[in-house]
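Appendix B, Record 12. Input sequence as logged:
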Amino acid sequence: MMAFKKSGLKWVGALALVTAVAGCDTSKGIGRFFAGSATEAGPDEFGIVPNKPLTLPDDLASLPEPQPGARNRTDLLPEHDAVAALGGQPSRLDSTVVGSGEGPLLAAATRNGTAPEIREVLAKEDAQFREENGPLFLQRLFKVDTYLQDYEDQTLKARQTNELLRRSNIKTPTVSPQSDR
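Logged structural output:
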């Protein structure tokens, strides 16, 4: 009888230990003592924008139907405010109408034709590329970000391209000094 109590006590102790260790999971923010992952500096304090105060409209029937992902009437629009402060027209940020000054640019960009389904084609090709070149087992296990490695061959080397264009006597804008990072 005493041996049974000891083995039962061991099982209860093991179960308590497993339960305690399971509470230490930091993947969902439980047990975290700092914001962000160990490789990040923390949250983006500039990404936090307070809302305008809630107000009750005069006519509740004039409120638009709720749309998933649509803006709230009390949301601040910092991009719109910045455009207005610089003398621009904030309403053009939401417009899909091509302005008269954008016509020549659009004509040059579409001179060889356009593919209306280009977003779907690119999404399909990118999904296939990521499936073929995704992270290896240990990289997935330890949540190693391989994005930059996977797309390195497709990345424009801005400085090298700028030097090549300058050697070909093509005027280019100035380039910021290279950082030591």
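The two ends are 68 Å apart (CA to CA).
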